[in-house]
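We store chain and fold; example below:
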Amino acid sequence: MTVLSAPARHRLARGTRWHPGIREVRLSHLLLGGQNGMTAQAFATALMDPLWPSRRVVEGPHAQLLARGPEQSDRDILGSPYARMARACIRHTGVYFAAVDDAGILAHARQFLARAAGEPTAVPTGVMHSPPGQPVLVVPVADSSCFQVIDGHHRIALAGAAGESTVPVRVRRGKVSTPLQDLLHQMSWLEGGRELYQPVDSPELAAQWPVVRCCVDRLEAMESYLRPRGLLEGSYLDVASCYGWFVGQLAERGMAAEGIERDPLGATLGRLVYGVDPGRIRIGDVVDVLRGTHEQWDVVSCFSLLHHFVLGRGACDEVELVRLLDKSTRRVLFLDTGQEHEHWFRKSLRGWNPDHIREFLRTHTTFDQVLDLGPDRDAVGPYADNYGRHLFVCTRAEDREHR
């Protein structure tokens, strides 16, 4: 049995009907759900916004409308995300509560704002409105500590505007997933697993989706090397770019950034979670793409790929791969790879330690200098016996100044 706090019991006593299964849930764990009888997935499709079910209600259109206050103009309201949401409902279901046009949307929004301001107003009833006193209805999000709201978005937004941190909810049986979770599960390298290879900031992923590679360590090392040499203004290619985190980060720093990724979903995820233009991601096998181009990039990165070729999983051997990377790099190559100290490679990569990797890169490329920038910070938590891979920077003679 769930034990409610005294304030929660007070709220329940004064306005919420008791139902079995009611419990207090933090507002930060409540995500946007379906509208007007549509499921969250269906409404996300109608709104053409796959990340709709990945947003907190307190950051959604209901809360945004309240944050702008009752003084906003009719034009502001009709140009808001709240009105866009309402119009999508009208297009696909015929109504948004009692509204069938902009005038109805405006009237409904004004009534909602008046409730938030504490003005005397009748509690709305009728089409799509819950009876007074009903608790918020939610369903758990799979592999997450979050819940998707089935009914009660306005009540949650009002609670947030009033400074509440929790609301009483009734939890429906079953579980749902978000479109973002579904896309991540479909990424070929995950094979249906529940991991993030690069950071993705979304509430339903925060608790139970471990981040395999923190990536920030690599970015810091790259930026520390490139910035004093004036190399953050050129072109950049991330080989095996996965979701496109590095492409997005280097683009933000002013580079003409691109990626190569085998899985087409990488470009889709990059657009959704990092805002990366899918046209900047070349889809295909890395070897095929690099063999088929004479292009060069000022800066190239290749993270955690080389060892797959050492293990015989690539379309060529490891020597040809680094020669292709060498050919494609005009100035600086950043590279890391699996090493013999890692538990899962203690036999298969025997001999592949930092000294060997550095010498391998010096022998099989035309770079003038190969520097070891040290290990990553990924050997933590469930990966404590793995990672700790050293990052190498390979440079041409003209980029050795400011050493």
Notes: The chain is about 35% helix and 15% strand. The first helix runs from residue 6 to 15.
